[in-house]
Amino acid sequence: MSAPATFGASALRLSYDDVVALDDVSVSVAAGQVTAVVGGDGAGKTSLLRCLAGVLRPAEGQVRSPGKQRTGYLPASSGIYPDLTVAENLAFRAAVYGLSGAEAARRTAELTERAGLAAARDRLAAQLSGGMRQKLGVIAALLHRPELLILDEPTTGVDPVSRSGLWWLIASAAADGAAVILATTYLDDAQRATSVLVLDAGRQLAAGTPEQIVSAMPGSVHATPSRPAGPAGERAWRRGAGWRVWYAPDARGPDGGGPGAVVEPDLQDAVTVAALARETQERAAAAGPAADPRRAGSRPAGPEPAGPRPSSRQPAGPLAESIDVTCRFGSFTAVRDVSIQVRPGEIVGLLGANGAGKTTLIRMLLGLIPASAGQVLLLGEPPSRETRRRIGYVPQGLGLYEDLTPSENMQFATAVFGVRAGSEVRLSESLVLRADRSRIPVGRLPLGIQRRAAFAQALAHEPDLLILDEPTSGVDPLGRARLWQAIADAAQGGAGALVSTHYMEEAGECDRLIIMADGAVVAAGTVAEIIGQAQVTVVEAADWAAAFARLEQAGLPVSLAGRALRVPGASPDEVRRVLPADCRVGTETATLEERFFDLVLASGRPAVAA
Q1: Which end is more exposed in the chain, N or C (fewer Cβ atoms within 10 Å of the end residue's Cβ)?
Q2: In the CATH scheme, what architecture does the domain 6-212 have?
Q3: For the purposes of burial, counting CB atoms within 10 Å of the CB of 176, is it exposed (0-12), middle (13-18) or buried (19 or more)?
Q4: 3-class DSSP state of 148
Q5: Half-sphere exposure of 430 (CA within 13 A, CB side)
């Protein structure tokens, strides 16, 4: 029997004018496996995938692929024609790949049914939600059973319910023998993959299985309840309710090993450390031979993040509050009887599938749209222009002027709010807005850098309340950690924060979570309180693809996690009945995403919701 095909690239180099997109990047993509390419916007993920797809020709290096006719490609734009229906998009793609009429009809019916799009076959793609468009794009790429499936950020900006459906399609393709490579900014997506490549500014930070990346991490990670002082603080990042501090192999803390308890690092820690190590090397090289090698793993002290200072006008009660609020648009009810509070000094996470009512609730809290029923209070009074002056707001659209640079956007915002001159420079530096990027118009910057600029702008006038709608989407792991550090500093200074996110790992950064579904609150509390005693069945099999197929045929929900399978909603006995005796079946505590999915289903929202 011949070995499974392996595709990929070796030593790729690519530049756009004077910008290096790929610098000696290699990746291997094996048949029957999922490979994840991780990094923030501008890391080089799309350039690498476009080279693999044959869309770009690298300046140097070699690409190994089965050819365009045996490759399925989902671009970041989803590659779907908005003025064609679902069926017309798939018929066009089938014709391009030369599928016969009967085969095209069979595959279209099979894939649309599996993805929950059968009822939307005659709907224009422009009328689909973002999650449904992404699923349609993946189906179009899968239609001709490609040997190599290339997916550019299929889950970015997609809610957890739709992400679950997308990952089912991805796992199905790998189980059928396709070599799958996908780009993502989410480390929880990377945890599901067999192998991972981490990119930063076109260069490789780490590569291997998630376990190999963690074991290769240099030095040690310590957990502390607060950010340490001195050089150690420059190697620290917020993680959950506490802090993590990295010590390089030759770095020593005051007690010989660093404060706090040594923790077993995970992939998020390892990727953050890899970024810190690269940053350290670059700073040491810039400092020249005078740099002290014993300070490896540290960087010169920079400005501290400038969080809001508590206002003398802050109310004694909640900073933002909705009391039995309902919002209707004609006959459609977007929000129903929702009561929430955001108090001084706390971070509240707002989670929900697309269409759950999160953005509508935020807009009511801001006073941008009126409530149909109930009461909204902002800083202790009805929303007004005066109360909005004391809020830092980052909308999904970012609210930046694309023809102005980040510095010019910041200067404009601080002038509007009457902020003292110079504070915008300090804040921009604290959020790592490099000087070379601060002079480029926002519209030409990667989305992740735009988000950092919008976040810095929201903090510049030292608001009493932060309202952040998906603030870290597209930001690299280290940049995301620093943004959350700034949010935590703001809360420590007395401000409150309401943060909407699709990124489940970020839920651990919040003091409390509010989960919405179908316009209502379906759960509230800490992560541990929401997960409770929920369990999930876990399967380990020598042939994961065969086990996946058996579980699927039995009608059991199944998801891929590396080479293990997770079967939420099914007992171990149910799973054992459909699998061979050599499969190991056990239970683990459910993840927040799995619990979220259960809550959404219990609310009556369809499992295929997008």
Answers
A1: N
A2: 3-Layer(aba) Sandwich (3.40)
A3: middle
A4: strand
A5: 22
| Cβ-based neighbour number of residue 342 at 10 Å | 26
Indicate the residue type of 52. L
Q: In what order do the strands lie in the sheet with 373-378?
A: 332-342, 320-329, 373-378
Beta bridge partners of 203: 200
**The dihedral formed by the CA atoms of 111, 114, 120 and 126, expressed in degrees to the nearest 10:** -70
The answer to whether 384 and 395 have CB atoms below 8 angstroms apart is: no
Cα gap 550→31, rounded to integer Å: 20
What pTM did the predictor assign? 0.81
Token output for 236:
């620290």
Q: How far apart are CA 263 and CA 574, in angstroms?
A: 36
Q: Are 508 and 237 in contact (CB under 8 A)?
A: no
Looking at per-residue pLDDT, the higher value among 428 and 302 belongs to 428
Domain ranges of the chain: 6-212, 220-272, 320-529, 535-589
H helix intervals, 14-149: 45-52, 86-96, 101-115, 130-142
CATH architecture of 320-529: 3-Layer(aba) Sandwich (3.40)
Could you write out the DSSP letters of every residue in 522-543?
EEEE-HHHHHTT-EEEEEE-SS
Residue 135 corresponds to which tokens in the numbers above?
């699923």
What band does 230 get if pLDDT is binned at 50, 70 and 90? confident
* Cα separation of the two ends of the chain: 41
The answer to whether 6-212 and 320-529 have equal CATH topology is yes
Kindly provide the residue ranges of all beta strands, DSSP E only, lying in 266-417, ordered along the sequence.
Answer: 320-329, 332-342, 347-352, 373-378, 391-394
- Residue-wise pLDDT for 100-129, tens only, equals 888 889 989 888 887 778 888 899 988 887
Q: Which residues contact 354 (CB under 8 A, 6 or more apart)?
A: 129, 130, 131, 158, 159, 162, 609, 610
For domain 535-589, the CATH class is: alpha beta
Quick count: other Cβ atoms within 10 Å of Cβ 436? 7
Q: Which amino acid, 185?
A: T
